[in-house]
Write a structure and sequence with these properties.
Largest sheet: 3 strands, antiparallel
Number of helices: 9
Radius of gyration: 29 Å
CATH superfamily: Peptidase M41
Number of strands: 5
């Protein structure tokens, strides 16, 4: 998870990192959470390229720090491959294949027999070109993520150490680590403040309004009797 988070903070156009946790949930042993910058109706090429690098961060961290790879990056690869294929086949973001949308469904309708038939809307040569371009995008994203992780190797080691101690780190924690400004006392104070805020009892409802009869029973003062009259 440290690999995803560090790459996500370094690249310019990825969604901001919200927090990183190693607390298991469901089938996941941990997660890096991002906050979308906006409600997107479309994606820019530079945003998708940065997102591909972030997705490759986990695998690159395994290669560098563990000198081995695991099946834990399966979901990252699935997501990255779908993004890369969308770039090539739907969004015209491939220099090699140009501004063309290729039908990936392979369903051209029903045959005369009443049974659906499937046929690609492009040649085998084009299919190979698509696969080559997708692979090239993923390899470039992998190389970019690996370079970032190597450059910030010390920060990732520190982040891993702090995750083992605190289990969850927020965006401010990660920035402090990246900028070599980590302070245990500062972190503990922020946790205490958050805990106090959570434990503080909610304020009660406001008192009910007084009825006119109750107001009449209240003793009146000189200022109540005539506002604006100066005392002598």
């Amino acid at each position: 998870e440290s690999g995803h988070a560090i790459v996500g903070l370094i690249v310019e156009h990825a969604d901001p990192v919200d927090k990183v946790t190693i607390i298991p949930r469901g089938f996941s042993l941990g997660a890096t959470h991002f906050l979308p910058k906006k409600n997107r109706l479309s994606y820019w090429r530079k945003e998708v390229l940065d997102q591909l690098a972030v997705l490759m961060g986990g695998r690159c961290a395994e290669e560098i720090f563990l000198e081995d790879v695991s099946s834990g990056a399966q979901q990252d690869f699935t997501q990255a491959t779908k993004l890369a294929r969308s770039m090539v086949c739907q969004w015209g973001m491939s220099d090699a294949l140009g501004n063309v949308a290729y039908d990936e469904s392979g369903d051209n309708g029903n045959g005369f027999s009443g049974f659906p038939y499937h046929e690609k809307s492009y040649s085998e040569q084009t299919a190979k070109a698509i696969d080559d371009e997708v692979r090239k995008l993923l390899e470039k994203a992998h190389d970019r993520a690996k370079e970032i992780i190597i450059t910030h190797k010390e920060a990732i080691e520190k982040m891993t150490e702090m995750l083992m101690e605190y289990e969850t780190l927020d965006a401010q924690d990660i920035r402090d680590i990246l900028n070599h400004e980590w302070d245990d006392e500062k972190k503990k104070k922020r946790l205490r403040d958050a805990d106090d805020l959570f434990k503080s009892p909610p304020s009660g409802p406001p008192p009910p309004p007084k009825f006119p009869s109750e107001l009449d029973e209240q003793p009146r003062t000189d200022n109540d009797a005539g506002l604006g009259i100066a005392e002598t």
